[in-house]
Specification:
By secondary structure, the protein is an alpha/beta fold. It folds into three domains: 145 residues, N6 adenine-specific DNA methyltransferase, N-terminal domain (Ferritin, Up-down Bundle), CATH 1.20.1260; 275 residues, Vaccinia Virus protein VP39 (Rossmann fold); 100 residues. Helix content is 52%, strand content 11%. It contains 23 helices and 13 strands. The strands form three sheets. The protein has a nine-stranded mixed β-sheet. The protein has a two-stranded antiparallel sheet with strand order 5-6. The protein has a two-stranded antiparallel sheet with strand order 11-12. Strand 11 and strand 12 form a beta hairpin. The radius of gyration is 28 Å and the shape is globular. The N and C termini lie far apart (62 Å).
């Protein structure tokens, strides 16, 4: 979502208005605020699904079947009773004197329609007062909440949590998983049908992304997937259920003490999962070793226990669990602290056993600034108990620390095309060249569509792209066209009357931004094909390497991608080092002499002034 920062700021200002003008404490008004965002986001998705359903009905020539709640679920939305729809609440007459009760009734109606939400949605909106509640409803009626395909509940929750209580936002290493990382996990584990578990499910982002993946590949997740979650913090578990309901999903989510994964397999799923996806809290300490060992699920062995009888770092407990939960063909994808890839002591022995199992599929290093409230790097681990025999003694390593899009100075992400490119490396490693070929076709089609943005020769060049050999020419032509449009924009704005300049500049800025976005897509196509051509895997220094078990043993069983992929070759800039250093030295001497002369002049001036 391009304007997520702006959206967060606007929503927070409304939420902060509640704190300032109501009698509620921060703890009391956090959930009601998120409940209103839930209502608004649910309504946005409902509208989208409703339009799709009605459009398909108008195209049908047969007998019209009544619209049912399942029709919305199939399209990733929740059916909302009329009295709970956001526009109904928003447009109640001004004479309505009990808006708080109406919102409470809306929550009750949604819970009745969706039994999994029973007791989850907030109430007591009468405590806010009608005027304040009406104002908040108006402010939350933000078109950005109509956008599809984002874990908006989790994202806004993380932002609000950081505002409500910064100390809580990072407690125990718990923080929101960025959409980029979640989507990358789905692209690699490829959920199609079966049982998925997230034993540290937070606000449910993994489930939402898995459903999006299934739907994009032609399936109905309501029919094909069963979701199980454990979340120790009950507050987060409620958000998970809300998030899933908004997306037309159902799941079995357990919270509280019985959901503490260190001590409980709450759903009795050990050895039964087709998919495990998670972002567990990193580097947790003080896990009671006796209780954890008694709870089982440690097929790799037991990691280090301190003198207090506690696991001093729970990273390998989590890795044990993820591996143990998989059935004989199951896949796991999870986020883990980067230190776990080469930690020593007993961890190394557990890692060696995991590598020797042949079930480590891929390791992907992620650079700084992907997390929303943290700047730390991490590694995505991928396990596959159903790996084909020819890959059992191999592991794919990808170091993507230099490959991302900077959203701002503190936030990076992978664009949709970058996610496709990273996924393409995995496809080629798996021998799935057909998927790579389909991606090249997508790039060609996208570039051809760009022809509508240009004219003349550039339009013809873009419209004629059909194969990877055309990508470089398209890039050069588009880049030259952008420079021409910039020059024309500058000339036209300068020649325009003063009152027209702002409007004209804005129009050109919008056009050029669209062209630059298009150029970025062509650049991504070239990034991929410059390395892998028409679709043949090759190790790329500094980016990716397929390592054998022997290679990994020689690295002391390290699974750190950087230890295997090496560093990219330094490009020769054509400058003679010694000659350039001589020039720099001469320049420094000249500047120093000028500085000395200037200081002498300043001193004389002070003396003449008697200072």
């Amino acid at each position: 979502m391009a304007d997520i920062k702006k959206l967060e700021k606007e929503l927070w200002e409304a939420a902060d208005n509640l704190r300032a003008n109501s009698k509620l404490t921060s703890q009391q008004y956090c959930m009601p605020v998120l409940g209103l965002i839930f209502l608004r986001y649910a309504w946005g998705r409902f509208k989208m699904a409703d339009a799709q359903i009605r459009e398909s009905r108008t195209q049908s020539t047969g007998r019209q079947i009544p619209i049912e709640a399942a029709d919305y679920t199939k399209r990733g939305a929740m059916f909302i009773p009329e009295e709970a729809r956001y526009d109904f609440l928003l447009n109640l007459p001004e004479s309505e004197k009990n808006l708080g009760k109406r919102v409470d009734d809306a929550m009750a109606a949604i819970e009745k329609q969706n039994p999994q939400l029973a007791g989850v949605l907030p109430r007591n909106y009468t405590d806010l007062g009608d005027d304040l509640l009406a104002e908040t409803l108006r402010i939350f009626n933000n078109p950005a909440l109509d956008e599809d395909g984002d874990d908006i509940i989790g994202r806004i929750y993380e932002y609000f949590l950081g505002k409500f209580a910064p100390a809580v936002a990072s407690d125990d290493g718990v923080f929101f998983t960025p959409k980029s990382l979640v989507r990358m996990i789905m692209n690699v584990i490829e959920p199609e049908r079966g049982v998925m578990l997230d034993p540290a499910c937070g606000s449910g982002g993994m489930f939402v992304s898995a459903s999006d993946y299934v739907r994009e590949h032609g399936g109905n997740p309501a029919d094909l997937m069963t979701y199980y979650g454990q979340e120790k913090v009950e507050y987060n578990a409620k958000l998970c259920l809300m998030n899933m309901a908004v997306h037309g999903m159902n799941g079995r989510i357990v919270s509280g003490d019985e959901a503490n994964t260190f001590y409980h397999d709450a759903h009795s799923l050990d050895g039964s999962c087709d998919y495990v996806a998670a972002n567990p809290p990193f580097n947790v300490d003080k896990v009671k070793s006796e209780d954890a060992i008694n709870a089982g699920r440690m097929p790799l062995g037991i990691s280090g226990i301190n003198k207090a009888g506690e696991f001093s770092n729970a990273n390998y407990l989590w890795i044990n669990y993820f591996y143990s939960y998989l059935n004989p063909t199951g896949r796991a994808g999870f986020v883990m602290a980067s230190s776990a890839t080469d930690s020593s002591g007993k961890d190394r022995a557990l890692r060696e056993k995991l590598v020797k199992s042949g079930h480590v599929d891929a390791m992907l290093y992620v650079g700084n600034n992907f997390f929303y409230t943290k700047s730390l790097p991490c590694t995505l681990w991928f396990l596959d108990k159903g790996k084909p025999q020819e890959l059992r003694d191999k592991v794919l390593f990808i170091d993507a620390q230099s490959y991302h899009t900077a959203i701002d100075t503190t936030h990076n992400e992978w664009s949709p095309w970058q996610l496709k490119n990273l996924s393409a490396i995995v496809w080629l490693y798996r021998g799935e060249a057909d998927k790579y070929a389909t991606l090249l076709d997508e790039y060609s089609a996208a570039i051809r569509e760009m022809a509508e943005l240009a004219d003349g020769d550039t339009k013809a060049v873009l419209a004629g792209v059909t194969m990877l050999d055309d990508f470089a020419g398209a890039r050069d032509s588009l880049a030259a066209y952008i420079e021409k449009r910039r020059a024309k924009a500058k000339a036209d704005v300068e020649a325009a009357k003063q009152r027209e300049r702002k409007r004209l500049r804005a129009a050109y800025d919008e056009e050029i931004a669209e062209l630059e976005d298009a150029l970025t897509v062509v650049d991504e196509a070239l990034w991929l094909t410059d390395r892998f051509g028409a679709g043949e895997y090759a190790d790329v220094p500094g980016l990716c390497k397929i390592a054998t078990l022997q290679d990994i043993e020689e690295k002391n069983w390290s699974l750190t991608p950087g230890a295997h992929v090496g560093v990219p070759p330094q490009e020769d800039d054509g400058v003679d080092f010694h000659e350039r250093m001589g020039e720099i030295h001469e320049e420094l001497l000249r500047l120093q002499a000028e500085s000395n002369d200037l200081m002498a002049t300043i001193s004389r001036n002070f003396e003449e002034l008697g200072l």
